[in-house]
Design a protein that fits this description.
disordered N terminus; glycerol dehydrogenase (NAD+) activity; Rossmann fold; NAD; alpha/beta; metal-binding; about 400 residues; Dehydroquinate synthase-like, alpha domain; single chain; two-stranded antiparallel ribbon; globular
């Protein structure tokens, strides 16, 4: 596929192709799970450093402190400053070394989690993720997405292992605005589309090898679970309820999508997301909202059956995800910006090159421009109004 998934050094012998799957050491999910964090953390380290922003700490801090104290662990907390930049990551490395922590714990969203994974790796200690929302599949993976100070995609960083523990409190997720869960659905729906493309092209995955049957199957399972459960789960979360559908969607957004994207493969959808981060107009959108535009664009690039594209537009509109350029702050007349997005999405090493056919920047621009009329027509025919979009960082 590219340098992003285990490229070879110039002059070195070509490595023997292998299939591989990677995963976190332990995954824990359930209502009230955060009250047992200390219990699951104690076997991993004796001197944890908790990293969280002030908003998240305001509603989980008491439970985290109580849980750690009950397990005989010290409570040290460091504030996360909002964007996983190289500077913020290096700052956290310094804090880890100053405190003598032997495990760093991310409590929060995908940005906090990526910064913690990167800083834990650089500091040479273990890392744990405790997502406060189910808006991305970052909690389970052995990579981090690093952004510029302006919020544009900068690079992927890959690590030799996944988190030692992923702990998800489903009641905490249900207490958050439903828009976060909807964004996670957008991120997770891409998993099967991209794994399917990677399997067809027999490209390398983020795990550093060819896709396994297991990784691809988990990606498809994530897709199936979401189509069956996303809408009732979102209804329940709007009332802050944890139901079986909510539990299934949390697992699909976090574990199944995480394993599926990493060991099943990424393709056009996430590359287009990365390109969209170069457009200032899209900086206020959540990760999964931009990914949904990428997924729809990938379907168009593939020449997918019209019925499949129509179903995807209708379903993701009902979920509350964008399907037009207008909804992400762009228009078909923003040719210069769309060309920038397309160039960034197709740079050497991007995951779009895992598609089973060649995709150029001009192809991406055409597909993006075609979204507006196509999605509006499909929604008009289905009697669907445009979704009300939540705006957040990453």
């Amino acid at each position: 596929m590219s340098e992003t998934a285990g490229s070879e050094t110039a002059g070195a012998p070509t490595p023997v192709p292998v299939r591989t799957i990677i995963s976190p050491s332990r995954y824990v999910q359930g209502p009230g799970a955060i009250t047992r964090l200390g219990e699951f953390l104690a076997p991993i380290g004796s001197s944890p450093l908790i990293v969280a922003d002030d908003i998240v700490w305001g509603f989980v801090g008491h439970d985290v402190e109580s849980s750690l104290k009950a397990a005989g662990l010290p409570v040290r907390k460091e504030k996360f400053n909002g964007i996983p930049t190289a500077v913020e990551i290096d700052r956290l490395v310094d804090v880890i070394k100053e405190t003598g922590a032997d495990v760093v714990v991310a409590v929060g969203g995908g940005s906090t989690i990526d910064a913690v994974k990167a800083s834990g790796f650089l500091a040479g200690i273990r890392w744990v993720t405790v997502p406060s929302v189910a808006s991305t599949d970052a909690p389970t993976s052995a990579l981090a997405v690093v952004y510029t100070e302006e919020g544009a995609f900068e690079e992927y960083r890959f690590f030799p292992r996944n988190p030692d523990l992923v702990l998800v409190d489903s009641q905490l997720v249900a207490n958050a605005p439903a828009a976060f869960l909807a964004a996670g659905v957008g991120d997770a729906l891409a998993t099967w589309l991209e794994a399917r493309a990677t399997s067809r092209s027999n490209s390398n995955t983020m795990a550093g090898g060819l896709p396994t049957l297991a990784g691809t199957a988990l990606a498809q399972l994530s897709w199936d679970v979401l189509w069956e459960n996303a809408l009732p789960a979102l209804d329940a979360v709007r009332d802050h309820l944890v139901t079986p559908s909510v539990e299934k969607v949390i697992e699909a957004n976090t574990l199944l999508s995480g394993l599926g994207f990493e060991s099943g493969g990424l393709a056009a959808a996430h590359a287009i997301h990365n390109g969209l981060t170069a457009a200032p107009q899209a900086h206020g959108l959540a990760h999964g909202q931009k990914v949904n535009i990428g997924s729809l664009t990938q379907l168009i690039l593939e020449g997918a059956p019209t019925s499949d594209i129509r179903d995807f537009i209708e379903f993701t509109t009902r979920v509350g995800l964008p399907t037009t350029l207008t909804e992400i702050g762009l228009s078909v007349d923003d040719t210069d910006v769309l060309q920038l997005v397309a160039r960034e999405a197709t740079v050497p090493g991007e995951t779009i090159h895992a598609m089973p056919f060649e995709v150029g920047a001009a192809d991406v621009v055409s597909a993006l421009k075609s979204l507006e009329r196509l999605s509006r027509r499909v929604r008009d025919e289905a009697g669907l109004a445009a979704p009300e979009l939540y705006h957040a960082k990453h």
